[in-house]
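Internal ticket #5521
Category: modeling
Description: The requester needs a full-assembly model to guide mutagenesis choices. All entity lines are attached below as received. Residue total reported by intake: 875.
Assigned to: D.W.
Attached entities:
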Amino acid sequence: METVVFTLNRESKSVTTDPGRTLLEVLREDLDSTGAKYGCGEGSCRSCVVLMDGRPVTTCQTPIAKANGKEIITIEGIAEGEKLHPVQEAFIAEGAMQCGYCVPGMVLTAVALLQANPKPTAAQINEFMNGNICRCCNYPNIVRAIERAAGQGAAK
Amino acid sequence: MKYEYQDVEPERYEFTEPPRYRFSLSRRAFVQSVGAGILITGFVDLSAFGQQRGDDDNGARAIGGRFHIDKNGRVTAFTGKVEVGQGSRTQLTQAAAEELNVPVSQIDLVMADTSLVPNDGGTYGSQTTPRTVPLMRQAAAAARELLIELACSGWNAPVDGASMTDGTITHSTGKKITLAELASSGDAVTKAFREGSTEGAELSVPADWTVLGKTAAPVNGRNVVTGAHQYTSDIKRPGMLYGKVLRAPAYNAELVDVDSNAAEAIEGVVVVRDGSFVACAAPTSAQAHKGITALASSAKWTTKPHPSSDELHDYLKQNVREGTGRQRSREQVSGDVDAALAASKNVVRAEYRIPYIQHAPMEPRAAVAEFEGDSLTVWTGTQRPFDVRGEVAEALGIPESKVRLIVPDTGGGFGGKHSGDAAVEGARIAQSAKRPVAVHWTREEEFTWAYFRPAGVVEIEAALDDAGKVVAWDFTNYNSGGSGIDCPYAFTNVRTRFRNCDSPLRQGSYRALASTFNNFAREAFIDQLAAKAGADPVAFRLQYLEEPRLKAVLEAAAQKFEFAAKRSAPAANTGYGIACGTEKGSFVATAAEVAIDPAEKSYTITRVCVAFECGAIHNPQNLQAQVEGGVVMGLGAVLHEEMKFKDGKILNPRFKDYEVPRFVDVPPIETVVVNRPDLPSVGAGETPIIGIAPAVANALAQATGKSLVELPARLPVIR
């Protein structure tokens, strides 16, 4: 057993657990934070993405020990109170969701993209987002949503 | 009268594989669950509504089976349909809002909770739009009329001169009352809804629509983007364990022996064994994983030979069976096909092949099962809530009336979630573990133990006369199915055959079913015939098509794409293809441009135009998303998707090895949706997928000079 301390959506958390467990399992099973989804267990679909110190990471590939001392933001923590993040607003406005299961990972990856590149071209969006799978294949609307968010200055 | 969809062609939509589990537990020794003290609330408190609903006939025929209005004026609507990403939640809410004349935001839609909703049939076959939306509208219109009558009788005023707008009833005399006020004044509304028939009220016409026909944002959108929406796999119940099922190392393998001591020695792990069903459960999924690993390491299996994907298509053709019922081998003939083929000097033949592919929904199968006494609640993602409730009851040997099945909005289906595997597994483990149990399939389990879109072979033979006119059409489909097998072209001497085969893999429904293959083969072959006749692909099709709506989308796609100009003067190493098709009453045509590398080893799809028509449009933004999503999903089958298997094992059960479409695969797509407010609305979730594969095949044929007969489409073309 090992004790890991980190912040989750700006709240301090301390977890004592088997260090072999993944961050995804601990978030979902121990901390009731189910926004990050299991999709593949091999880092191929990015349904499980959270922001760790601002960077998108696949939590299904992250041993819990690696979260020690980190600042973690999940999809539940990206809005400011009732006010949605512009990327979230844009996903609703463009209908960039069908079943919605990939959306938390998509939104967080897009947030990271716009932080790094506030005005991405369509090709840059495709390249940055290419690790995220939407099996409903709603990619055109997701690209439109990211472009809309960029147009509204989503990067802060 | 039982509330069923007798007239939907069931062979296409049902999952016909036998149940996976036949538990041997004593039916008498049914557990008295220790969970008896746990309050099951589900997502909706049953007692909140004026009457018990469920799937009794009256539940669907009375307004109260569809609607409830609480004292705050909030409207709750009920449907047995599920939301798996096709947009039914928003669409059905729009339908209710349109006829009730209340805002979309004032309506909550309860979907697929078998204790609350009428049985609207499974969610498949593009039936929500043509069947369930009208039922919802009918009930809403009847509710509106009834509410107006109630208000007027309270005022002693005639119904003439009264109307309802934005949830408020007003009268020309100046009186007005809100739904909240009406529902708060005694139980008149509940009583009237319980007795009032859903039939007979006048429906709005599309020209007057203010909610339907307009883009509506997804009603659950905020919950989706904030992570608040709970999919089945997100549900956690008090005291819940995580269950894992011991899987066979190969298809056809049978369990000989397993030693559970090592697994049971792991802290927190309980082992459940019932015949060949072996599972374990533990307080964390990591512990359950350790338990199942220990069980697997001690398990001994017998194996049997199993055909490999390399020999699949020969195997199918060599293993034709009579089949039974809806899956039987059959044929339809008009004219004398053999004589016409024998008499022609211009006979064209081709054999097409497709592999098994996986639906691969982003949310793998999942279920949570919880007993309270002898009553069982199961949350699971399935497209057939009432049937899966029956499946669970039968597997466990308990009455259906003791099972409540709830389908939270689910992470994808595509025809792949007709079965109740995880629900049955979770329920069986919970029964022995005496705790609530969640079963979450891994991606590898989903790729291996779910079912597949059927593989198949299509043989086509056709004859042209000396003038280039088609005088014989002979079409045989092996294994993949009969959907879309009928030829929309008015040829003479036509034979279509479906051959049921022994399928090496468990197979079932898929988005647009076998028409993904039948339309691919037919439309690729039509281009071969057009070439033989020396005709332009669009003109050749139009010469034989009779359905004006199909002709219209073909012409719309050709025009948008500038097909005639492009096709007749192709850029270097570039091809232009077009294809059309119809399924489930809707019509699609798709044009594609492909660029090949000069060595003919690879290609890129550089542009797609799609035209689609499904009658009167309900939600333009969602329709466009369904059309484009269908095109891109269809691209997956063109570019990559193929199950590989050998010795009874799936060789590529993960996204690293089974590629699905990603952002960079998506070409620019220009979408034309044809609105026909004069025609009834039909579904749009399936048909748009059927045009892209043949369009790409036909473009590749122009670019390479060789006909493409296999999916996925790989260069160089070798067959």
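Resolution: model delivered.
Comment from assignee: Residues 23 and 29 of chain A are 10 Å apart (CA to CA).
Ticket closed.
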